[in-house]
Fold these 4 entries.
Entry 1:
Amino acid sequence: MVNIETKFLGLNLSSPIIVGSSGLTGKTGSIGKLEESGAGAVVLKSLFEEQILAGIARETRKGGVVYGQTDIDDYIAFYERKHSINDYMDLIRDAKKAVSIPVLASINATSDKEWQAICADLDKAGADALQLNLFVSPFDMRVAGEGIEETYVSIVRKVKALTSLPLSVKIGPYFTNIGNLVSRLSQAGAEAVVLFNRYASPDMDVQKMSIKSASARSDETEYRSSLRWTALLSPFVKTDFAGATGIHDAITAVKFLLAGAKVVEIVSTVYKNGEKRIGEMNDGISMWMKENSFTSINDFLGKLSADNIADTAGLERVQYMKKFGDIG
Ligand SMILES: Cc1cc2nc3c(=O)[nH]c(=O)nc-3n(C[C@H](O)[C@H](O)[C@H](O)COP(=O)(O)O)c2cc1C
């Protein structure tokens, strides 16, 4: 008998397949369908720090009026902030009523400013855990990478002090030394890291001479950088790992479990294939386990991570020197 239950952030999950933060997890109706289809947990659509701040800016300029009076501006800012936050707390409460799988709240944070106060409310609303979707803008050439990384760590430290919820942190892949940052996030209190987020990228329309967005959805070849870093770091950093980006099928999910991830977060494959893809991935993992005589995920978790393989060169290799040599 094969059992695909797993533990992530101290939560018991019936499956390692989590549906990641997206439009799929922004409404209770669709969250219910994800549970029915076999999701182990959901990460709610993020409350964006920018969304709160943009709301404030919009309200202060309504009808072309810029109040410019500190007390009125402060009142509107307070009202707008409260409004966005209250809506989000309602989403958490409704989702918790609608499903019995764990519900992770998600906040997109870009700075370590006072928005963190809302973390306390997340506990009250009933979220099972919090996922921080961190992105500190790297577009100011005057700011060195070190300063940006310190903001990531500082956000985690401050949030950790404000919530008793288990904390996971989703980051992107663009750091000089990912292992160093991940271990600092762990020391700052992150009980899990999600490797990696996938950011919107620009493209160009050469007929219209304009900038356009590339597809918001990943394809099934995009998982490899997340897989590499999960396998390299999972044995050495005391935090849970979740794989993300480009995980579209059961065998790719199995690869992440072999790399040491406790769970995978999927989004694009559900958009492309419908909720039924979650059940197909659960079945595919079970089938692979049967074929390989594993009865629980712990039987093979991390079997191909950096401390369980004879030679890590295959995980660390980034250049094709030999291949070019052969060709030359
Ligand atoms: C339409 C859409 C909306 C998303 N919204 C959020 C969001 O609100 N918060 C967040 O942390 N990630 C968001 N993401 C990113 C996903 O959670 C995920 O990290 C990314 O899509 C990579 O996973 P995938 O390859 O399975 O799609 C969104 C992705 C898509 C496609």
Entry 2:
Amino acid sequence: MAQDKKQWHPKFLNYMERIIKDPSYRGLPIPKKADGSYAWIVTAQSKTGQQRIDWCIRKARELGLITGYETYPGMYADVMLQIHPTKWKVCQICGKEMSLYYHYPSANFLKSLNRKFGTDFSGCDHISDIWDELIHRGVCEGDIAAFLIHAGSLNLNARTSSKEEIIAALEYACRKGGRKCLGPGAMSNFPDRYDGFHTYNRCCRAAQDKGRSKENLKSYTKDRRAYEYWSDGNIHAANQFMGSRFFHGTSADHIGPISLGFVHDPRYLQPMPGGDNSSKRDRLQTADIERILETERRTGVYPMSWQSKLIWEFIRENYASHPDKVPTLYRDALKQNMADYMFILLTILKKCPENGTSFLVSAFLEPNYDYFRYSYQFNAKGEITARTARHYTARGQYETERYKRIAIEAVYDYSEKNNRNCRNDLNSTELAALSSICSSIESGAPLNENKQLIKDLVETIEERIIRSL
Ligand SMILES: [Zn+2]
């Protein structure tokens, strides 16, 4: 109660002033304190508190919420929300504006949402922003709609209802219908606070939420991981499939781990009960190899990214006669090869300040951009059953920009994260070849020439690794 207003966020001071002057609050008591400032905060037992309650009951009658003088639970909150001029409230601590409607995921709902879509949203991300962000990431609208409709047991059709309809219905179900998916940006607190809402918003309510906002929506999503390993495969279809109904309540798992060089492709994804995923992430078992080979026979889609192809071919020939080598030696060979490949990419970025980034993008990422031009439909096995051209406008560009950004960033991150457990093992000949490739890139030699030099180097490394198996 004895809070010093000087420490309040300037945006909140401004907000208080706007509210006090707003005609909606005419007649709602707010005494001036000795220092001339307004007493925003009072107690319910105080004289002002009682006067505020009387005012609010009159207002409820005026709005038609009650007919007599009998109040009902939640009435003050209804009144104060209804009269609020913007429905957005500024946080006293950080100045962030949040919706007064139930627009923010609750802890449990957030867990299932993030599990479902492989995302890392926070409890301070507005449901509308979450929807948009999921679309940006290639999740199809129907899947988001179905997820929210299911979560709120809403009587709506996922295929025909609009985003606005669904969010409004879910918001209402949570605010008035006892559903627990969403919560408000600020809890109601009348008559203690003049506007009827806690001075702290959701953003500053719990220490762990602090500082999160939609500007720093950070994602360690599955699609992000796929971009990190410069994986081949239909990467956009894979992202879309991971967000589809086939993965409801489970997370998507790569049959062949992308960290070992396998492709990011819907045909090589399977549902996996949450929790099991992390332990399996870069393991390889004989049973996995058999699933991979079965999938390739059935779909004709090659399971391995180009940079690990020779080692994979070797494993394919030899795993049956050496099952004991699969989870250890063969897996480690793929892991080592990926570490070497990432080291090659990092060296190019570092040693070719002029052309390095644009060369890598043109040589290895741009060929995948076409995947983003389509929307896909799937059967339960991740096989593509239909493909429709998308309007390749701002959204498609956003996605390829994001793909590029993540892939380049990941090269730097990879070297930091993996420094200790998996270093590159290039020998002096290979290092010399890499060095000359960098000169060639920086001197502006033709793209295909440089690309071929890198392929030759990668194959040399693979062959050396294979000889050790
Ligand atoms: Zn805040």
Entry 3:
Amino acid sequence: MLDFCIIGSGISGSTISNLLSKKYSVVVYDKARGYGGRSSFKKYKDKVGFDHGLQYISPKSTKFKTFTNQLIKKKVLKKWGGNHLFLHKTVKEIKNHIKLIGTKGNNSISKHLLKKIKCNFEHELTNIKRLNDHWELTFKNDVKQKCKNLILTCPFPQSKKLGQKYLNKSYLNQNVKMDANLTVMIVTNKLKQSNSSYFFNDDMLGWAAYENSKKRFNYKYDLWTLQSTYKYGNKFTKNYRNKRKYYTNQLVKKFEKLTKLKIKKIYYSRIHGWMYSSNSNPLKQLSLWNKSLKLGLCGDYFGGPRLENGWLSAVDLFNKIGKIRI
Ligand SMILES: Cc1cc2nc3c(=O)[nH]c(=O)nc-3n(C[C@H](O)[C@H](O)[C@H](O)COP(=O)(O)OP(=O)(O)OC[C@H]3O[C@@H](n4cnc5c(N)ncnc54)[C@H](O)[C@@H]3O)c2cc1C
């Protein structure tokens, strides 16, 4: 029987899987089609594509800086240069603020950490059951799996739903506020501008990234990722699917207005709604390990809203698990 099943291939799932796999048998399951969770890369053509979730990493803690420096050396991460224009009045750009991105896409870290681990995509976990000495997992596609230990790395509401029978009330009753985000990806004619990104002071549009400036590809057209503010995302993400064109147009028009750039042609557009994009009220603890049930939880919502928090949480959980007897 498998030692560990890990649910999620984002930064938390890939980090804990990588650490545990050095000693135990580990298999990853993710409901998505590919690696990275909220730091996934939406392919357009060959190497051409969009970072439609996480935009960039800006390491803060010494531990995480050491980790990212190693990944820069291995060419998994690189610096995102160019001019990042800050049009926000109240939030000021921090001087020497490093922006790290995945060399081939922002899911590069997850891909790197999981390269030797078996990952089953398009497997949505729907039920977990603790039997005498193991977990029985049931997936939406009727697949069943048994494992001795289970780690959930999905965002708080999803982990809570899956684990509610087994997690204690004081944990379940905690309030983690998750903000939503609407993200538009467009391929346009070449726009006459030279910035790598824009950070706006607006109720609707928060940020725009010029994908070509990341120098992962050379392409005849421009690729832009436009992300809404949380305020706009929280209001419209739940029902955006009924009016995809409308919300795309709203965000594109706003982009043109705020940058004063004129788009002549849109060759491709896609909109994605992130219900659980970021959490503004994270948990104080760093991870959760129930030794008797052999159930672990980690994710960015333990400690903060950024990728670094997901990594720190996974490392903390690994240390808590320590030398368990399988
Ligand atoms: C639009 C947006 C912009 C962001 N910008 C930044 C940024 O610039 N900088 C930064 O540091 N952070 C940013 N973040 C936050 C960052 O992406 C997250 O902190 C980080 O990716 C969280 O990683 P995680 O592994 O904890 O969770 P996730 O990446 O969400 O991984 C959880 C995984 O679990 C899977 N899953 C969920 N439920 C199930 C189930 N039932 N069965 C199977 N699989 C399941 C999901 O498919 C997912 O792959 C941004 C996030 C978004 C959405």
Entry 4:
Amino acid sequence: MFSIIVAFDKNFCIGANGDLPWHIKQDLRHFKELTMGHKVVFGRKTFDSIKKELPGRVVYVATKTRRKAGKPYLVIRDFGKFLEENKNSDEEIFIAGGEQIYKMALPYVKKLYITQIDLEVQGGDAFFPKIENLKIISKKDCVENGVKFSFLECEREIAKNCDTGTKTKL
Ligand SMILES: NC(=O)c1ccc[n+]([C@@H]2O[C@H](COP(=O)([O-])OP(=O)(O)OC[C@H]3O[C@@H](n4cnc5c(N)ncnc54)[C@H](OP(=O)(O)O)[C@@H]3O)[C@@H](O)[C@H]2O)c1
């Protein structure tokens, strides 16, 4: 099964100038805790923006062009095919962005771990796609250096016409 892990602001902004628009240590820790021991998929641009190693995880990078070099990772040449081939997998596979990768993966995703950040980023250039039929499973409010944010665990109804949960507009 595929799960999305993402942080976005009030306008669904996820990035600016190829990087995260904020630095929230608790969110980085949250990402590490959730993804540890799992498969994690990044788009090539997001992967290039990560300066640290990602020990303890099996890292996949979606790239149509890049040859393997440097940090250890597995290459996905056709992300659409990867989604189709793994959609019934029993293990949780984390989709970790960015915008292009989230957009393609969203129809396949049941669970979303969302960090909802109480900011309005100026000059953002990467956004999370519009989501509907989200059911909030849990919510934890936090604050760091004056910035408020919430960790949400959500489920998305994949099949239409069978939505019994609370429809939430984030
Ligand atoms: N806030 C968050 O939670 C969060 C999380 C992740 C990322 N971000 C932000 O999102 C931004 C980056 O997003 P982005 O949309 O520009 O880039 P991206 O999704 O990270 O990567 C795009 C790349 O993925 C590869 N790709 C796309 N479609 C593919 C396919 N069908 N098969 C195989 N590979 C494919 C291509 O790589 P090649 O060009 O190598 O072929 C493409 O250039 C950054 O600002 C980053 O910081 C934010």
